[in-house]
Design goal:
The structure holds 2 protein chains of 2 kinds.
Chain A: E1 4-15, E2 19-29, E3 33-37, H1 44-52, E4 59-64, E5 67-68, H2 74-77, E6 80-83, H3 95-105, H4 110-123, H5 140-152, E7 158-162, H6 170-187, E8 190-194, H7 198-204, E9 207-212, E10 215-220, H8 222-227, H9 232-244
Parallel strand pairs in A: 3-8, 3-9, 6-7, 7-8
Antiparallel strand pairs in A: 1-2, 1-4, 4-5, 9-10
Chain B: H1 2-15, E1 18-22, H2 27-42, E2 46-50, H3 56-65, E3 70-74, H4 75-83, H5 90-98, E4 102-104, E5 114-119, H6 120-126, H7 131-135, E6 143-145, H8 146-150, H9 155-162, E7 170-172, H10 174-182, E8 188-192, H11 197-200, E9 203-206, E10 218-223, H12 226-229, H13 231-237, H14 246-259, H15 263-275, H16 286-321, H17 323-338, H18 341-352, H19 356-380, H20 384-392, H21 397-427, H22 440-448, H23 452-480, H24 483-495
Parallel strand pairs in B: 1-2, 6-7
Antiparallel strand pairs in B: 3-10, 4-10, 5-8, 5-9
Helix pairs in contact in B: 2-13, 2-15, 14-15, 16-17, 16-19, 16-21, 17-19, 18-19, 19-21, 20-21, 21-23, 22-23
The chains are: A alpha/beta, B mainly alpha.
């Protein structure tokens, strides 16, 4: 049986009397990339936050590499990297301080931290001089690179990204897209990525899960979604993106 | 004589008992307290002066707690306000007070009670010397202070006792009544029998021949244990018994009120002429006074503000963490702010006595609100994605608070502390009412003497200190608020054009 790095079993999260997410069942294989796609409000980001342990499910269980995710388990969160749309960088800390914050609170040796920092800077193609700047002094693309470095600092087992390219201009976006895929490939991490853009999903992901109203409508490779759509919604969603023009090259 | 005094003065610091003398906020009380203090010093004691405290209750509580040994009061006040009953005779007063561990001197010789005053010239012309004489002239125009009109022992008692038939009796402000009287717009008004104005406006206080007004004999009230602790000083102070006549008291009041003479100078003159005593009087110079008050004031503000921050920042954090508790906390802290500052100061006295302690406690309570509110607002206002980022990184709760949330809230918290500091500098001037000193002292004296220059002697330094505090916090802001936040703030401003 193939090992799954992220396992979501029958998860339900309720928001008030009518709105709810799930029941959801989903798994991401070790070292593979799964893209969560779907229209706004379909529950993609909430699912990511559930996996991250930032929100507790009302029903069901989520586990990451066999360990059950709980909100109180901060140590498990340190084994996961998380990148938000805007970067989520702390404005009062310089880029380097943002990246090394947790490592420093864990009192890792300073030389190791410094080494890891320059390693990540070259991996994420960020000039060392930029590391001394505050987030307010960085461009949008630089912020996302710093945010990615922060997520990778402790060499996490899984990487969760919530629309990491959503707020960028087209040029920066395509540059970063290429870099991101290279990094995923080089590091061989398990990646769960949220996007509303099918083209981007196709560019990054081995498999795609299409969400609508808090449920997975279909999960498979993009080719499967195209050739054997499970519902009219799936074929409409795929069709709409083809006409709108995809943002990336297919994987 | 001089040799004896010199010997006593030199002996004083060695084994001298301390006598703490306090007074109320008006000139006569300050003068009587100063007389007692000088007499105690002449007897070799060390006198500590607590001038111009905020009222009978404050002084009485301080006396019972032992913060004060002695203060001047009036028999009528002791009966009505302290004992809460109708006046009886002197022996009974002594017995009732001794149950509380308090003793009282024999009357000092004058009364400060209500009287009806007329211009002397008019009174002479109409042959009016007593209130009974006044009753025979219902054509005269009477006007009284509002307080006198309202109090049962005032106008109603007077009218009934003498069957006064005057019509159109009006209520007026005290100062206006005096001016109207001297201008001839009214013919008689209420006054106190030792008011300096009697002399200034050449008035006659009509004799209360049918005893409508209660007795207000001036006495000194003191802790019974003073007789053992400082017997010589007490004997010396009791030399005042029966020695101060009403005209002498009026003259002393007038010297201070209208000629601007320092109280200590006036009392020294009295002791010299009446008891042939010559106390050494030292009046501190302007700069020495200013320095001492600045020290007192800055210390009050610094301690109160530190205490307020130590309590308010954790409260603000708690309020931001728990929404329901937060509402309660912000509500309670807001209510504290609505308690009048003087009332808050007086509440503190039974618990903390008089002096700097109750003032610091009251100021600290007053300083809470801006800090609690701004800490709460600063934390609640942190963007959700930053809060989430911190949690997603796997930082502990405490690390999140220390490394992310508090630094992000720091501009707001600092602004709250600044507001609190500036308010505290102003409010601390009220500390003088409970004997905490500071810039409030000359303001109190200035109000008592209607002296603008004295009021400014306190008000200007207080305003300058407030400005200095503001400037200090502006510098502190530059040093403490992380540079990245300043950059982020200016970016948002230019970004939202």
């Amino acid at each position: 049986m193939e090992l799954s790095a992220i396992d979501v079993q029958g998860v339900v999260k309720r928001f008030g009397p009518s709105a709810a997410l799930g029941p959801l069942t989903l798994s991401v294989r070790e070292r593979s990339t799964l893209a969560l796609i779907g229209p706004s409000g379909s529950g993609k980001s909430t699912l990511l936050r559930l996996v991250m342990g930032l929100v507790e499910p009302d029903e069901g269980v989520i586990s990451v590499r066999g360990r059950v995710v709980r909100r109180s388990d901060a140590a498990l969160r340190r084994k996961m990297g998380y990148v938000l749309q805007g970067g989520g960088l702390f404005p009062h800390l310089r880029a380097a301080e943002n990246v090394t914050l947790v490592a420093r609170t864990l009192r890792l040796p300073a030389e190791r931290i410094a080494l890891r920092l320059s390693e990540l800077a070259s991996l994420c193609r960020l000039a060392e001089a930029v590391l001394g700047r505050y987030p307010a002094e960085l461009s949008g693309g630089q912020r996302q690179r710093v945010s990615l470095m922060r997520a990778l600092m402790l060499d996490p087992e899984v990487l969760l990204l919530d629309e990491p390219l959503g707020a960028l201009d087209p040029v920066t976006r395509s540059e970063l897209q290429v870099d991101l895929r290279r990094i995923f490939d080089e590091l061989g991490k398990t990646v769960l990525l949220v996007t509303h853009d099918l083209g981007e999903a196709a560019f990054f992901a081995h498999r795609v899960a299409l969400l609508l109203d808090g449920r997975v409508v279909q999960e498979g490779t993009l080719a499967e979604l195209e050739s054997a759509p499970s519902s009219p919604f799936v074929s409409r969603f795929v069709q709409a993106h083809r006409e709108g023009g995809a943002n990336g090259v297919k994987r | 004589m001089i040799a004896t005094l010199l010997a006593l003065a030199l002996a004083a610091p060695l084994d001298a008992p301390t006598v703490r003398v306090a007074s109320k906020k008006f000139t006569e009380s300050v003068l009587l307290a100063e007389l007692a203090a000088e007499l105690a010093e002449i007897a070799g004691a060390r006198a500590v002066r607590r001038e111009e405290l905020g009222g009978t209750r404050v002084l009485w509580e301080a006396l019972l707690r032992g913060d004060v040994d002695l203060y001047p009061d009036y028999t009528g006040t002791l009966w009505r306000e302290i004992l809460g009953r109708a006046p009886g005779d002197a022996a009974e007063l002594e017995r009732l007070l001794s149950q509380k561990g308090v003793a009282v001197t024999r009357p000092l010789g004058f009364q400060d009670s209500y009287a009806i005053g007329m211009r002397r010239a008019l009174a002479d012309r109409l042959g009016i010397e007593t209130v009974s004489d006044l009753a025979r002239h219902p054509e005269l125009h009477l006007a009284f202070t509002d307080e006198f009109m309202d109090r049962a022992e005032g106008w109603p008692a007077l009218r009934d006792r003498y069957r006064l038939a005057h019509r159109g009796v009006r209520g007026l402000d005290h100062d206006i009544a005096y001016r109207a009287l001297s201008a001839g717009e009214i013919d008689a008004t209420d006054l106190y029998t030792t008011d300096a104005e009697i002399r200034r406006y050449d008035l006659r206080a009509l004799a209360d021949d049918r005893q409508a007004f209660p007795e207000y004999q001036a006495v000194l009230v003191y802790r019974a244990d003073l007789a053992e602790r400082a017997p010589l000083a007490l004997t010396s102070i009791r030399r005042l018994e029966g020695r101060i006549s009403a005209p002498q008291m009026i003259a002393m009041n007038a010297r201070v009120r209208f000629e601007g003479a320092p109280a200590a100078e006036v009392t020294a003159e009295f002791l010299a002429t009446t008891l042939d005593l010559h106390p050494t009087v030292s009046v501190a110079g302007f700069w020495a006074r200013l320095l001492q008050r600045t020290e007192e004031h800055v210390l009050l503000v610094a301690i109160a503000l530190s205490a307020a921050m130590a309590v308010a920042i954790p409260l603000g954090i708690w309020a931001a963490r728990r929404r329901r508790a937060g509402k309660v906390i912000l509500g309670v802290v807001g209510i504290v702010q609505t308690v009048p500052s003087l009332a808050l100061l007086v509440f503190m006295i039974p618990i903390l006595g008089i002096g700097a302690r109750p003032a610091v406690a009251a100021l600290a309570l007053y300083g809470l609100l801006p800090v609690v509110r701004n800490t709460h607002a600063g934390l609640v206002g942190i963007p959700p994605d930053l809060r989430e980022s911190a949690e997603a990184l796997g930082l502990s709760r405490f690390a999140r608070l220390r490394l992310v949330e508090l630094p992000l809230a720091s501009p707001s918290i600092l602004a709250g502390v600044k507001t609190s500091a500036v308010i505290t500098v102003g409010t601390a001037t009220l500390g003088a009412l409970v004997g905490a000193g500071g810039y409030g002292q000359p303001i109190l004296t200035g109000i008592r003497l209607a002296s603008t220059s004295l009021i400014l002697e306190g008000a200007i330094p207080a305003a300058l200190l407030a400005l200095a505090v503001q400037g200090l916090f502006d510098l502190l802001e530059r040093a403490l608020v992380p540079r990245g936040l300043t950059l982020a703030a200016s970016e948002t401003r230019s970004g939202s054009r």
